[in-house]
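Example 3.2
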Amino acid sequence: PTTGDDLALMPPEIRHHLEEVQRVEFTSSPDGPYQYLCLRHLPEKNMTERVDLKDPADLRPSTTAFWADRKNGQIRAFSVIASEEQAIQQMFQLLDKEGLVDGASPDEVLVSNGMISRFRFDEEGAVTDYELFDRYGQKIELPDYGEHYSMERQALKTPKNAQNLRGQLSEFISGNETGRSRSIINWIREQMPEWDFNTYRWILKEMSGRVEGKAKKSGQVKEKGAALSAEEIITVHTHFIDYLRTLDTGKKAKSSLLDITRTSLYRFFEKLPALDGENWGIVSRKRPTIPAVRVPEQRTLLVDGTGFTPEGTDPEHSLALHLAEAYRQGWRRFILFRVNGQRLISTAVMGKSNTDDVIMDVYGTPGEYFGAFMQGGTIRLHGNAQNFTGMCMHHGQLEIFGNAGKVCGYASKGGEVFILGNIVDRAWTNSVNDSRCQDLRVHILGSASKYAGESLMGGDFFFGGMYFDHLGQLRIQDRPYRGTKLMGGASRGNMLFFDPNNRLETPQYAHGKLQEIEPQKWHYWQNMVIETLEKAGVEIQQQNGNPAFTADGKTFEIVPQYFKLIVPRGGLKGYESH
């Protein structure tokens, strides 16, 4: 069913079809959230379809992933749907292990509001073609993601120009220590379009073998500057985990490069405490004993998430409670890796008051409630988050280098949040800018779906409505806000949208109003936009004396004419449409 403001956004030629559906569904639709996954086999047409249906209120968003390859003229494509993303990631690991795909990461992950996946096959059962359609019958065209590579099944080979590559790497390592990691990052970025998968993988392994702890133990490297610190090696890996999506990677699929980078970093983490036990400790389900910490501000606890349960009350099984125990024993710096669906990864589980001295980096796919109930500190997620991210946040810094899910920031009081992808519905519902703690500031590179800012009572938000395509180019989405009922029942708060194509329409914010941006406040908003873009890896230029950036191949100055500020309309009828 599609009615009201949602119907007004639909193309006129399909509105009457949706109204007919509403007449039937009004009396026959189940009450409340639902999701149907229907598989239909049509052997007479050599076709199989999966139809994904969900409730009209978007209460059950479908986490969907695509992987597609046409190497050597052979069509291989997978459309995977799950209630939570870790199931998708696990499925691709299994598909890669079995040789059905190359690489353990999907090419694209998104939240679908309903779709059809249609596959055609020949008399022998081999897939010959596929089609994808959204809930309104519009065809979804997958781009050419590039060639793929399986780190699981392909052996690493020494490149023919290995000696030359070693020499270049050594030059960077023996250079100025303050800029070595940045020099290596820039070098790899420049070479990325031309290198093959094997060369990139070999460079990461060669670099990881130059770590200081190993050099000191072996006695092979004595001179200053001849080895990299562990932090520098982690920085290089993390940069490409976060920013591969912004790069020109040539013919190589970004998903396979991401798989290589993550796997290389995880293996490095495993070896690190044995190389430098003074600065690094490690725990896992197999080794649950938390090592002693003598200087908390210098030592970092590595936590392998493999095998920890999503929930629970036993610290040996629950990752959240394991973090709580480590905090109680004095640890303040954490790196979590191979995270896979564990919930409530947050400073909320640590102590009974502020946790401003905590710094946490997370790699993998955490479960729901990531960063929820934060009482301070800094948490960075190098991947996608899921539902209830930042829920009831009090204060702190939360950075997500990817998407997040439903009901982000529910009932928050403050904090600074960066989400460098899309979010789903009901974002920051019932949130307030509490004067007793940090101001609530939210930076979203992408867009949100319906009910954003419902019953909002404060805070400043920026929605960029942008994404990076398969070529690493910054693109503008069709709309800076994907749904309707923006700021329903809200009393305070400000939402700034980048809308150069004037695609934010009045039915989308029926309970808000367009407000002119006051000149004295523009500098504040301009800085917020720049902070978001820089965090996302977008280059800030100068044009006509104004900061600018490039999207859709055009240069946009960061000036008020390209932005819309929406504020609550006020009054007592904010809930009329609910």
